[in-house]
Design goal:
Order of helices and strands: EHEHEHEHEHEHHHHEH
CATH superfamily: NAD(P)-binding Rossmann-like Domain
Bound molecules: NADP nicotinamide-adenine-dinucleotide phosphate
Strand order of the largest sheet: 3-2-1-4-5-6-7
Number of domains: 1
Helix content: 40-55%
Number of strands: 7
CATH class: Alpha Beta
CATH topology: Rossmann fold
Radius of gyration: 17 Å
Number of helices: 10
CATH architecture: 3-Layer(aba) Sandwich
Protein backbone atom coordinates (compact mmCIF):
# COMPACT_ATOMS: atom_id res chain seq x y z
CA UNK A 1 0.00 0.00 0.00
CA UNK A 2 1.29 3.47 -0.84
CA UNK A 3 2.64 5.38 2.13
CA UNK A 4 1.30 8.89 2.38
CA UNK A 5 2.00 12.07 4.33
CA UNK A 6 -1.21 13.80 5.42
CA UNK A 7 -1.06 17.60 5.77
CA UNK A 8 -3.99 19.70 7.00
CA UNK A 9 -4.29 23.41 6.23
CA UNK A 10 -2.98 22.69 2.74
CA UNK A 11 -4.70 25.66 1.08
CA UNK A 12 -2.53 28.30 2.76
CA UNK A 13 0.61 29.19 4.70
CA UNK A 14 2.60 26.47 6.41
CA UNK A 15 0.43 23.56 5.27
CA UNK A 16 0.63 24.60 1.63
CA UNK A 17 4.39 25.19 1.78
CA UNK A 18 4.89 21.81 3.45
CA UNK A 19 2.88 20.02 0.74
CA UNK A 20 5.12 21.63 -1.89
CA UNK A 21 8.28 20.78 0.03
CA UNK A 22 7.28 17.14 0.48
CA UNK A 23 6.27 16.82 -3.17
CA UNK A 24 9.60 18.29 -4.25
CA UNK A 25 11.27 15.54 -2.23
CA UNK A 26 9.11 12.89 -3.92
CA UNK A 27 6.83 12.08 -1.00
CA UNK A 28 3.20 11.31 -1.84
CA UNK A 29 1.06 13.83 0.03
CA UNK A 30 -2.62 14.19 0.86
CA UNK A 31 -3.36 17.89 1.39
CA UNK A 32 -6.62 18.77 3.15
CA UNK A 33 -8.48 22.07 3.65
CA UNK A 34 -11.93 23.45 2.81
CA UNK A 35 -11.18 25.69 -0.19
CA UNK A 36 -11.12 23.50 -3.27
CA UNK A 37 -9.85 26.09 -5.81
CA UNK A 38 -6.72 26.69 -3.72
CA UNK A 39 -6.19 22.96 -3.32
CA UNK A 40 -6.62 22.34 -7.05
CA UNK A 41 -4.06 25.04 -7.87
CA UNK A 42 -1.60 23.37 -5.50
CA UNK A 43 -2.22 19.94 -6.95
CA UNK A 44 -1.68 21.27 -10.47
CA UNK A 45 1.90 22.13 -9.48
CA UNK A 46 2.72 18.50 -8.55
CA UNK A 47 -0.04 16.32 -10.02
CA UNK A 48 1.87 13.06 -9.48
CA UNK A 49 2.76 13.68 -5.83
CA UNK A 50 -0.04 15.77 -4.36
CA UNK A 51 -3.51 14.38 -3.72
CA UNK A 52 -6.10 16.78 -2.33
CA UNK A 53 -9.32 16.61 -0.39
CA UNK A 54 -11.76 19.35 0.54
CA UNK A 55 -13.11 18.74 4.04
CA UNK A 56 -14.21 20.76 7.03
CA UNK A 57 -12.03 19.11 9.68
CA UNK A 58 -13.96 20.84 12.42
CA UNK A 59 -16.85 18.46 11.76
CA UNK A 60 -17.28 14.76 12.39
CA UNK A 61 -18.48 14.29 8.79
CA UNK A 62 -15.42 16.04 7.38
CA UNK A 63 -13.04 13.84 9.38
CA UNK A 64 -14.99 10.70 8.52
CA UNK A 65 -14.70 11.60 4.83
CA UNK A 66 -10.92 11.79 5.19
CA UNK A 67 -10.81 8.42 6.93
CA UNK A 68 -12.87 6.83 4.16
CA UNK A 69 -10.63 8.34 1.46
CA UNK A 70 -7.53 6.85 3.12
CA UNK A 71 -8.71 3.53 4.56
CA UNK A 72 -7.63 0.56 2.45
CA UNK A 73 -5.80 2.75 -0.09
CA UNK A 74 -2.97 4.40 1.79
CA UNK A 75 -0.80 3.72 4.77
CA UNK A 76 -0.31 6.95 6.73
CA UNK A 77 3.39 7.68 7.44
CA UNK A 78 2.74 11.10 9.01
CA UNK A 79 0.03 13.61 9.81
CA UNK A 80 0.89 17.28 10.17
CA UNK A 81 -1.96 19.23 11.74
CA UNK A 82 -1.43 22.75 10.42
CA UNK A 83 -5.11 23.77 10.02
CA UNK A 84 -6.19 26.34 12.59
CA UNK A 85 -7.92 29.68 12.98
CA UNK A 86 -6.99 32.60 15.24
CA UNK A 87 -10.08 34.78 15.61
CA UNK A 88 -9.24 37.67 17.94
CA UNK A 89 -11.40 39.09 20.70
CA UNK A 90 -11.77 39.53 24.44
CA UNK A 91 -13.01 36.60 26.51
CA UNK A 92 -15.60 38.89 28.09
CA UNK A 93 -17.23 39.31 24.65
CA UNK A 94 -16.80 35.72 23.50
CA UNK A 95 -19.94 34.09 22.11
CA UNK A 96 -20.46 30.37 22.21
CA UNK A 97 -20.51 29.97 18.42
CA UNK A 98 -17.03 31.52 18.04
CA UNK A 99 -15.76 29.35 20.89
CA UNK A 100 -17.18 26.19 19.30
CA UNK A 101 -15.74 27.06 15.89
CA UNK A 102 -12.21 27.63 17.16
CA UNK A 103 -12.12 24.65 19.48
CA UNK A 104 -13.53 22.47 16.69
CA UNK A 105 -10.68 23.17 14.27
CA UNK A 106 -7.80 23.93 16.67
CA UNK A 107 -8.43 21.16 19.21
CA UNK A 108 -11.06 18.62 18.14
CA UNK A 109 -9.76 18.25 14.58
CA UNK A 110 -6.21 17.18 15.51
CA UNK A 111 -7.48 14.94 18.31
CA UNK A 112 -10.17 13.11 16.41
CA UNK A 113 -8.49 13.03 13.00
CA UNK A 114 -5.46 11.36 14.56
CA UNK A 115 -7.76 9.00 16.45
CA UNK A 116 -9.76 8.00 13.37
CA UNK A 117 -6.63 7.45 11.26
CA UNK A 118 -4.89 5.22 13.84
CA UNK A 119 -5.95 1.99 12.04
CA UNK A 120 -4.51 3.39 8.77
CA UNK A 121 -1.11 4.32 10.20
CA UNK A 122 2.25 2.65 9.62
CA UNK A 123 3.99 1.33 12.71
CA UNK A 124 5.86 4.26 14.28
CA UNK A 125 3.95 6.84 12.23
CA UNK A 126 4.57 10.44 13.22
CA UNK A 127 1.99 13.06 14.10
CA UNK A 128 3.06 16.69 14.30
CA UNK A 129 1.10 19.51 15.93
CA UNK A 130 1.63 23.17 15.07
CA UNK A 131 2.07 24.86 18.41
CA UNK A 132 2.49 28.53 19.29
CA UNK A 133 4.06 30.81 21.86
CA UNK A 134 0.42 31.55 22.71
CA UNK A 135 0.26 28.11 24.34
CA UNK A 136 2.56 29.48 27.05
CA UNK A 137 1.57 33.11 27.43
CA UNK A 138 -1.76 34.89 27.18
CA UNK A 139 -1.70 37.61 24.54
CA UNK A 140 -4.36 40.30 25.10
CA UNK A 141 -7.30 39.97 22.71
CA UNK A 142 -6.13 36.46 21.72
CA UNK A 143 -7.28 34.55 24.79
CA UNK A 144 -9.29 31.87 23.06
CA UNK A 145 -6.47 31.10 20.62
CA UNK A 146 -4.09 30.76 23.61
CA UNK A 147 -6.54 28.42 25.32
CA UNK A 148 -6.81 26.26 22.20
CA UNK A 149 -3.03 26.08 21.69
CA UNK A 150 -2.45 25.26 25.37
CA UNK A 151 -4.89 22.34 24.97
CA UNK A 152 -3.07 21.23 21.83
CA UNK A 153 0.25 21.33 23.68
CA UNK A 154 -1.02 18.96 26.36
CA UNK A 155 -2.59 16.79 23.67
CA UNK A 156 0.80 15.90 22.15
CA UNK A 157 2.13 14.97 25.58
CA UNK A 158 -1.00 12.94 26.35
CA UNK A 159 -0.74 10.94 23.10
CA UNK A 160 2.85 10.03 23.92
CA UNK A 161 1.86 9.03 27.45
CA UNK A 162 -0.77 6.72 25.93
CA UNK A 163 1.77 5.14 23.52
CA UNK A 164 4.91 4.43 25.57
CA UNK A 165 5.85 1.68 23.08
CA UNK A 166 5.81 4.35 20.36
CA UNK A 167 3.25 2.70 18.06
CA UNK A 168 2.81 6.31 16.98
CA UNK A 169 5.06 9.19 17.97
CA UNK A 170 3.62 12.67 18.43
CA UNK A 171 5.62 15.86 18.14
CA UNK A 172 4.96 19.56 18.43
CA UNK A 173 6.61 22.56 16.80
CA UNK A 174 6.32 26.34 17.06
CA UNK A 175 6.69 27.89 13.60
CA UNK A 176 7.46 31.42 14.80
CA UNK A 177 5.75 34.47 13.35
CA UNK A 178 4.77 33.31 9.88
CA UNK A 179 4.18 35.63 6.93
CA UNK A 180 0.64 34.95 5.71
CA UNK A 181 -3.07 35.49 6.32
CA UNK A 182 -2.96 34.82 10.07
CA UNK A 183 -0.39 37.58 10.63
CA UNK A 184 -2.12 39.85 8.07
CA UNK A 185 -5.30 39.62 10.16
CA UNK A 186 -3.43 40.19 13.43
CA UNK A 187 -2.10 43.54 12.12
CA UNK A 188 -5.63 44.76 11.36
CA UNK A 189 -7.91 46.81 13.60
CA UNK A 190 -7.47 48.47 16.94
CA UNK A 191 -6.59 46.09 19.77
CA UNK A 192 -3.90 46.00 22.48
CA UNK A 193 -1.59 43.62 20.58
CA UNK A 194 -1.84 45.24 17.16
CA UNK A 195 1.40 47.25 17.51
CA UNK A 196 3.31 44.12 18.51
CA UNK A 197 2.12 42.34 15.36
CA UNK A 198 2.88 45.40 13.18
CA UNK A 199 6.38 45.57 14.63
CA UNK A 200 7.05 41.96 13.68
CA UNK A 201 6.51 42.95 10.06
CA UNK A 202 8.19 46.35 10.21
CA UNK A 203 11.31 44.83 11.80
CA UNK A 204 11.49 42.08 9.17
CA UNK A 205 10.85 39.32 11.70
CA UNK A 206 8.24 37.41 9.71
CA UNK A 207 9.30 33.92 8.69
CA UNK A 208 8.35 32.63 5.26
CA UNK A 209 6.23 29.45 5.26
CA UNK A 210 8.85 27.76 3.07
CA UNK A 211 11.37 28.11 5.91
CA UNK A 212 8.90 26.58 8.34
CA UNK A 213 8.38 23.70 5.90
CA UNK A 214 12.14 23.01 5.92
CA UNK A 215 12.09 22.99 9.73
CA UNK A 216 9.12 20.63 9.93
CA UNK A 217 10.60 18.35 7.29
CA UNK A 218 13.81 18.09 9.30
CA UNK A 219 11.79 17.16 12.38
CA UNK A 220 9.73 14.58 10.50
CA UNK A 221 12.54 12.82 8.65
CA UNK A 222 15.84 13.50 10.40
CA UNK A 223 15.16 13.15 14.13
CA UNK A 224 14.81 9.90 16.04
CA UNK A 225 11.61 9.10 17.95
CA UNK A 226 12.98 10.27 21.26
CA UNK A 227 14.12 13.62 19.82
CA UNK A 228 10.95 14.13 17.80
CA UNK A 229 8.69 13.87 20.84
CA UNK A 230 11.04 15.35 23.44
CA UNK A 231 10.00 18.98 23.32
CA UNK A 232 7.76 21.59 21.74
CA UNK A 233 10.34 22.54 19.11
CA UNK A 234 10.82 26.29 18.75
CA UNK A 235 11.98 27.56 15.35
CA UNK A 236 13.71 30.50 17.11
CA UNK A 237 15.93 28.17 19.16
CA UNK A 238 19.19 28.35 17.20
CA UNK A 239 20.67 25.20 18.76
CA UNK A 240 19.07 23.12 15.98
CA UNK A 241 19.53 25.57 13.09
CA UNK A 242 22.76 23.95 11.88
CA UNK A 243 20.73 20.81 11.14
CA UNK A 244 18.35 22.35 8.64
CA UNK A 245 18.61 26.14 8.16
CA UNK A 246 20.48 27.46 5.14
CA UNK A 247 20.51 31.26 5.15
CA UNK A 248 18.69 33.70 7.42
CA UNK A 249 15.60 32.60 9.35
CA UNK A 250 13.60 35.73 8.54
CA UNK A 251 13.82 38.98 6.61
N1 LIG B 1 0.95 32.35 11.32
C1 LIG B 1 1.63 32.46 12.48
O1 LIG B 1 2.27 33.48 12.75
C2 LIG B 1 1.62 31.31 13.46
C3 LIG B 1 2.32 31.44 14.66
C4 LIG B 1 2.32 30.38 15.57
C5 LIG B 1 1.63 29.22 15.25
N2 LIG B 1 0.94 29.13 14.08
C6 LIG B 1 0.21 27.90 13.77
O2 LIG B 1 0.75 27.35 12.58
C7 LIG B 1 -0.30 26.72 11.83
C8 LIG B 1 -0.31 27.23 10.40
O3 LIG B 1 -0.55 28.62 10.40
P1 LIG B 1 -0.63 29.40 9.01
O4 LIG B 1 0.00 30.72 9.19
O5 LIG B 1 -0.17 28.53 7.90
O6 LIG B 1 -2.23 29.62 8.90
P2 LIG B 1 -3.12 30.01 7.62
O7 LIG B 1 -2.27 30.47 6.48
O8 LIG B 1 -4.19 30.91 8.12
O9 LIG B 1 -3.76 28.60 7.18
C9 LIG B 1 -4.71 27.97 7.96
C10 LIG B 1 -5.20 26.74 7.21
O10 LIG B 1 -6.17 26.09 8.03
C11 LIG B 1 -7.23 25.66 7.17
N3 LIG B 1 -8.47 25.54 7.92
C12 LIG B 1 -9.04 26.45 8.74
N4 LIG B 1 -10.21 25.99 9.20
C13 LIG B 1 -10.38 24.75 8.66
C14 LIG B 1 -11.40 23.76 8.75
N5 LIG B 1 -12.51 23.97 9.49
N6 LIG B 1 -11.25 22.59 8.08
C15 LIG B 1 -10.14 22.39 7.33
N7 LIG B 1 -9.14 23.28 7.19
C16 LIG B 1 -9.27 24.44 7.86
C17 LIG B 1 -7.31 26.78 6.12
O11 LIG B 1 -7.90 26.30 4.92
P3 LIG B 1 -9.40 26.58 4.43
O12 LIG B 1 -9.77 27.97 4.86
O13 LIG B 1 -9.30 26.39 2.95
O14 LIG B 1 -10.21 25.51 5.10
C18 LIG B 1 -5.83 27.05 5.88
O15 LIG B 1 -5.33 26.17 4.91
C19 LIG B 1 -1.58 26.96 12.62
O16 LIG B 1 -1.83 25.81 13.40
C20 LIG B 1 -1.25 28.14 13.48
O17 LIG B 1 -2.04 28.17 14.66
C21 LIG B 1 0.93 30.14 13.16
Amino acid sequence: MTEIQVVTGASSGVGKALCRHLAQHSYPVLGIARRLPELKALQAEYPRQIHIMSADLGTREGREGVRQAIDGKYSVRSIVHSAAIATGGYLRDLDYQTYRQMMAINVEAPLFLTQSLLPCMCDGARVLHLSSGSAYRAVPYNGLYSISKAALLMMYRAWNADFPEREIVVGSAMPGVVDGPMQDAAREGDHPSVEMFREYKNKGLLIQPERVAEFLSWLLFSTNDQQFSAQDWNIFDDSHHANWLHGPLSG
